[in-house]
Design a protein that fits this description.
- The protein is an alpha+beta fold.
- The protein has helices at residues 10-28, 44-64, 175-178, and strands at 66-71, 85-90, 104-108, 115-122, 127-129, 154-156, 161-165, 181-182, 186-195, 200-203.
- The strands form 2 sheets. Strands 1, 2, 3, 4, 7, 8, 9 and 10 form an 8-stranded antiparallel β-sheet that branches. Strands 5-6 form a two-stranded antiparallel sheet.
- It is globular, with a radius of gyration of 36 Å.
- It starts with 9 loop residues before the first helix and ends in a 15-residue tail after the last strand.
């Protein structure tokens, strides 16, 4: 009886396994002609992350960024023209955040639904002249009593409020009319103005920043 011989030798099995392994490896290798996948929109999870980042950035820009608003009226002459100028307003300074005396702010007028543009003349704890110059003490509605209706009456600005006055006091309705304004009504700080005809961009700086510093020490 002849000896038993397997149908495949060891070398045959080894060669077949080698061929199968190489075929599997080559099939997993990306084809150079296949276009690459979009790194942002190629996967639903990546798309969700990109959308969330865009929404967060938009929210931060809207809440703490900038917006433009037209300037109108003579109350801020000569700083701003009656017509033809736009203001660049920083919303980072909403609610009085980082606002100093001398800054120009946009705020909600406390006696109506409009908004105004005035200069900060006093902050909480400061003392200000109530009804001078060019004002009528009888028209003040808040913070003015019978005792301080004199021409040189003074008052201390309460906590959480500020005193706003227009640069053109003769044509301005401001804190001399409706008293201290809550800081919560401040919508932003005017950081620049833009004139359309002719086009001109100008940063609006606090005039008190240019004053020299004096030391009380001898």
């Amino acid at each position: 009886m002849p000896p038993f011989r397997p149908p495949f030798s060891f070398n045959t099995i080894k060669s077949r396994l080698h061929i199968r392994f190489n075929t599997t490896k080559s099939s997993t290798t990306p084809n150079s002609t296949t276009p690459p996948k979009n790194p942002i929109f190629g996967h639903p999870f990546r798309t969700l992350i990109a959308t969330a980042k865009l929404v967060a950035f938009t929210h931060l820009f809207i809440q703490y960024g900038f917006y433009t608003s037209p300037a109108a009226g003579p109350s801020m002459l000569p700083t701003m023209e009656v017509l033809g100028e736009w203001m660049l307003v920083s919303k980072w300074h909403r609610f009085g955040r980082g606002v100093s005396v001398g800054d120009v702010v946009v705020f909600n007028i406390p006696i109506n639904d409009g908004h105004g543009v005035k200069r900060v003349l006093g902050l909480p704890g400061d003392y200000v002249l109530v009804n001078t110059p060019h004002s009528s003490a009888s028209s003040l509605e808040e913070g003015v009593t019978e005792e301080n209706r004199g021409e040189k009456a003074m008052m201390q600005i309460p906590k959480g409020h500020c005193w706003l006055v227009g640069d053109n006091m003769e044509a301005s309705r401001d804190s001399r009319l409706y008293g201290p304004v809550p800081l919560a009504l401040i919508r932003g700080k005017v950081v620049a103005k833009v004139r359309q005809h002719p086009w001109e961009f100008q940063w609006l700086r606090n005039p008190l920043d240019t004053l020299p510093e004096y030391s009380l020490e001898g």
